[in-house]
Amino acid sequence: MEKTAALAVLKGYDSSKYYRYDDLSRFLKALAAAYPALCRLESIGKSPEGRDLWSVTLTNFATGADDAKPAYHINGQHHAGEVTASAVALYFVHDALTNYGQAPAVTELLDTRAVYVLPRMAVDGAEWYFAHPQMLRSSPLRYPLEEEPEGLRPEDVDGDGRILQMRIPHPLGEWKISAKDPRLMVRRRPEDREGTFYRIYTEGLNYPTNSKPQHRQGGSGRYPFDRPEVRAMAEFWLAHPNIGAAISYRTRAGLNLRPSPLVADDKLNGADLQMYKQIGETCTRLTGYPTVSVYDYFTMDYAPDKLAVGSWLEWAYDKRGVQAFETELWDFRYICGVKKRPLKDLKNLTTDQQEEDALLQLRWNDRELGGAGFSNWKEFDHPQLGRVEIGGWEPKFCGQNPPEKLLHAECHRNALFAIEHALATPRLAIGEVRIKPIGGDCYHIAVQVLNRGYLPTNVTQVAIAMKATRPVEVSISGARVVGGKAKQDLGHIAGRGSGALAVWAGAVSPSTEKWAEWVVQGESGTFVTISAGHDRGGSASRTVVLS
Amino acid sequence: MAVQIDFSRYHRYDELVVHLRELADGYPALARLYAIGKSYEGRDLWLMELTNHATGDHGDKPGYYIDGNMHAGEVTGAAAALYTIWYLLTNYGTDPEVTRLLDTTSFYVLPRVSPDGAEKYLTTPYFLRSSARPYPFVAEQDGLYPEDVDENGLILQMRVEDADGEWKISGQDSRLMIPRRPDEYGGQYFRVYQEGLIRNFDGVEIQAAPPRWGLDLNRQFPVNWEPEAKQKGAGPYPLSEPETRAVADFLLAQKNIAAGQSFHTTTGIILRPSSLRSDEKMHPKDRTAFEAVGKIGAELTGYPCVSVFDGYAYDKEKPIKGAFLDWCYDNLGMMLYSTELWDLRVRAGLDRVPFSAPFKDRDAEAEGLAMLSFVDRELGGEGFVPWYDFEHPQLGKVQLGGWRMKDVLQNAPPRFLQAEAHKNAMFTLRHAATLPRIAVTAAKAEHLGDGVFKVDVVVKNRGYLPTHVTEMAKQIKTAAPVTVALGLPAGAELVLGKPKEELGHLEGRVLPPAGFYPGNGSTAKEKRVAWIVKAPHGGVLVVTAESSKAGRQTVTLSLGTEG
Amino acid sequence: MSAVFDPGRYRRYAELTALLQEWAAAYPGLCALAEIARSAAGRSVWAVTLTNRETGPDTAKPGYLVDANTHAGEVTGGAAALYTIHWLLTQYGADPVATEILDTRAFYVLPRIAVDGVELFLTTPHAVRSSPKRYPPQAPEAELPTGLYPEDVNGDGAILQMRLPHPDGDWQIDDQDPRLMVRRAPDSRDGKFYKLYIEGVIKGDWNGQAIPPVRRPWGLDFNRNYPAFWNPEGKQPGAGPYPLSEPETRAVADFLLAHPNIGAYVAYHTTGGILLRPPSNGPDDKLNAADLESFRRIGELCTRITGHPCKSTYQAFWYPGQEALVKGADDWAYEHLGIQAFTFELWNPDLRAGAQGYAQIGLKGLLEQTSAETLAHHRKLLAWNDAELGGKGFVNWQPFDHPQLGPVEIGGWEMKRSLQNPPEGPLLVAQICRAAQFTFQHALSTPRLALTLKAERVGDGLYKLSAGVRNVGALATNVTEMARAMQTARPIEVRLSGDVRVLSGQARREIGHLEGWAVSGGTPARNETWVDWLVEANPGASVVVTAGTSRAGEARAELVL
Q1: pTM, full prediction
Q2: What are A325-362's pLDDT values in tens digits?
Q3: How many A×B Cβ pairs under 8 Å?
Q4: Least crowded by CB within 10 Å, which of A72, A103, A189, B5?
Q5: CB pairs below 8 Å between A and C: how many?
Q6: Min Cα separation A114/chain C (Å)
């Protein structure tokens, strides 16, 4: 595609829309074609159904190749139903490319760093999600936490294009209609003896219990997809050791998740925790999402959630020592004014509190969406169950993902944080170079190597412990080195974020520089080149003349 | 003139000091005698410093520490320490190994840590643990206090016939008292007490009084220290006693001391750290070294080498607290052994356990008979005083008798003393031979033109132990890393490199515990250091390498002229 | 002469010594002065014994100890100690509390332990933890390791902070209060940034390249030099070569051991405005229940009088991931001797400034504050400095041409008389008066034995003697259960003597310990017991009964049959 055509295509991009695979691909290709100096698009593999898994590389190639720069990684949608994630990723790519040269932050970002974006890993699942009414469970924050009976397969039995809930009157039912809003089902209380009670099922059909509901089968469900996707990520990361920080998007708790998924904060490395808290504050300021430890917020008394949430995070931080966040985009309930609660508290809500929360959501839906988010109960003659009523919350673009009118805001504020997070990565620079002739064509050379970033060159202490990063190396060439090793190992260099948190007397700034020295021998006029390099800190070099 | 010392007797304080003076005066080039402090009763704590001063100051050589008699009654230890001094001095110049040791190593020998207690032990019938300071009570309490009631110079045992006694006379040897069987009645039974007098006796109750001198200098050191209520003998606080404090101050100040030996009695066993933790918790490299050197000790002395916790302590729930051995390792990073000299039980054909070990699944009668037959054979029966009648002022008719504790059970009998001292002295010398030793090799200066020189040296550890001696010392930073200093001639300028370079530590020949396979067959013993200097020709550089525990070496380099 | 004593001042060693000697001379019957140690610089560590000798020697009375300035810079405590001595001496006879204390108790004061450190603190701009001697001792006196050493480089009499403009600086100037440096946020990209250093000079061989780390020559901490939970330097910075290695700390230990009558103890420190109690090594369940109750009761007493809260050292200082636990003389006194020992952290600038200090939210809480909360905290402190200290606590940034670093600005908190101690004058006096009043009540809560003796004629020349032994103190005669466990409080011994023949009962009896009325978990306290004898005597014979135990003093009663 050539540039003008590409730009034309991009005119069609709307950040308040969800895109299916073909549109997504079309925009990505157009962006690559329109900004060849800043963007490279490649496929890092194919999905089971043959779709390309796109990887976008963003950097100003004129200032150096991406692999010679510190890198940031954006892990877009990897759960079928969490389409907001890929919307944010696509928005980031578009925003970065179209604002380069105007917005100073973006310009610095692409000039000094590389960003790798995987907009959508769950390509097949997402496509299936768009195409079918079935809801794909993908968040532990399902609420109310209801269970489907074995053998019930969700189906759009009334053909309205959505799978809602079925309520069936039953003397032993667990639910009743709320006195405060007839649309709302509330738990039956122990003392409720008189009245109409209901059982609630997901809209669907009954099948022999040996066949599992389709959405639990491989290809699009959450758990089966986790492992291969992490493997793909592992391969990608091993090929890009310059990745020092990363973010992964999911829905739908409206939270910025930090390590650890497995242990309390006091088990974390103190320095790493401080960095996480500092960057976390920036995220909270820009996105409004609280930054919380997965362990504190999600730990429940049963394993699956523990395993499901933060498994990527655990791998990124505990195994690779990358400063990774996992952002839960969009919190419908919070938008509606429902208080954020850790998962364990959510389980202990009183029925009254549940009703209050639900009413808040209904009112917001009436106010902001003209009621579109909730379809009222309609009688329906179910082929198997007879007379039922079908209704309930629009599952996909209200609870799990924002309604399109709110998508842009979601994308924008998260892109803002991604830019700042990426700019916090370490960056090597060569500062002062001191040359002193000492006779016999020998020169003493002292070089100042700086880390201009917020994070240390190792990014995390875990990275050192896991040997996921190597020390800073500085070397000299062009003249005979007679004193000092030609290639020297400077260890790691702190970033400006490593200092004291408060200005108590005694607060001292971290030393963000190290020096290397040589004695070289060569005639006056000889050019010597000093280069510093580090996998996570990028590279820098300087050529000086002996005189 | 060779100094003559009779090693077949236990020396009193004055005799000991005389011998030390003779040795110091006889070998001024090798020996220096000084006091590191005073005892509770004001006796000097004499320490002999041994090294060939001609080959360098004692502080510039790796140091080896020896002490004896930290426990008052364990006088065999003092004998072994004194013997070691005598052996080193009298064999210098004739024995090449002794000569090499005194040329390259400094020995610090403190023969008697507890002179007050030892003096009381040797000059009175009393037994005491360490110091002669009254403790834990200044005033006498109620109960039975050991006394030489019949004034025969020995505090023995008293047996009182009593139908409800716990003891009876052995059928096989009438001297031997053995436990009465649980189901036994109608025989002749005895109660057995230590010979002594009872304070505030009501005519019925006889309970042992708390010790008069209950301090234990070997529970005084600040490692896992606990007060008296939790550790008998601990003292009011760590190093509260002048003797222990003097030892601690000396070892903390004498930073070249890397290893040592503390002589105790009895059992015939070489103890090594830890008393507090099992071997699994010890750094494998330290364990390898302790075991390898301990093996040499076992070959020389016939005594096995074990960790106190795994091989010696019989109550793992209550590890001893404040022990010198643990302090030296945990707080100083020293490689110290503590040998329990003299093994009467083993010589009598019994197993090697401390006398204090509980009698579980052991046959008291069989053991008693075995020891009696040994002393009859080897000491002509001197070891056991047969029971004899005595009219006790408080208890009336009793019989006195029993083991001679001091010079039979607790210490090597005089005729065994020198042999005991010799073989253990030999172990200390072999142990001292393993110390790290810094050497500067392959020093050269290359002229790069215009008076610019490249100076190059290799610093090396020639010892078996690493320059940090133990991994513990490395961890707690008690061993200073190896440094190389470059001294410049007048008018010279250092262009590249520091005037004093830190090299960290250098390994010795301790092989990784994994054992030998290609790849770990050798260790990182040496490091290369280079400087660039600008200096006038013919100038002389002085390179000094040192490490607190591995000594110090200086070489000079003259800067050659063109080509 | 005592009239001219001004409690609101920090005094140098010579002044302190003169005052103590003056008082000892002026009140020979109430005050005794003794030297218990000599510092490295040859200064005396003084011990003051306060009691009315006419009512008995100090050793025969329940003892109470106050010490100060284990840490050199915490001179508020020293001032409190002097005030305490002066008040007790001058109020004796006039004030009932002072009178009862000196008549019935032995009140000991160690007014200044770190004598050398305090002198350095008061006479130079330097700060020192305890003792101005080179530590760790490994470093030979000759060569200082390369580093940035605190010095008053601009000669303004204070060691503050230096700020250098730097593109990668981690600080920037607060937009609200230009004096205040605030942490640069990760995403703050434009503006003027600074690096902060301690005001000082670089010593050792420096090649003019990167600024070396800060080093302080005097790392020794007396309060890490006590035997309880002691660990060597490698594990516990400031520990010293071994427990009680320093003449000053050893003297404190020997003093406590030489006075088994001391049952309670307060060590003055700064800052925080909090009374610290055990445990320091874990949550409260580490503590014996009865001891916890008595520590709490006394803590409440302190809060009532001074307004300062009382928490365990662990509650105040523990934070996630903390390695070495905070510990000191008070821990040793409690853990090994079973003394009811507190550390009193005087002066609470945070609270005065309207912010929450560690005394309120714990060190953990402070560390968990967000940048915004921390900033607000520091703004409050500056505002408080302007309002209450007339701005004296903070020196605004002044340009200075640093001999090694070139142009810098020097400014920041002058800690010594602002955040670390109150300025001399009314603020100081207010602090120490209330603190001292607490120690007086604490001293009077120590156990004290009283005796009543009754005789009943039961026959010809036969008498039944009954001695009622009571503990009239608030605390138990063993003071703590720890003292029982550590066998540091001997049981009460009752002795009968006189011209009688004891027919039943022993003339000398040990009757264990008696509870105090304040600590019985609300149930009736077992603080009274009776001892009976049957004796044979002629009419007119006199009998004497004494009851005594180390921490509750001795009581005596006699009667004529």
Answers
A1: 0.90
A2: 999 999 988 889 998 887 777 777 888 888 999 999 99
A3: 46
A4: A189
A5: 105
A6: 18
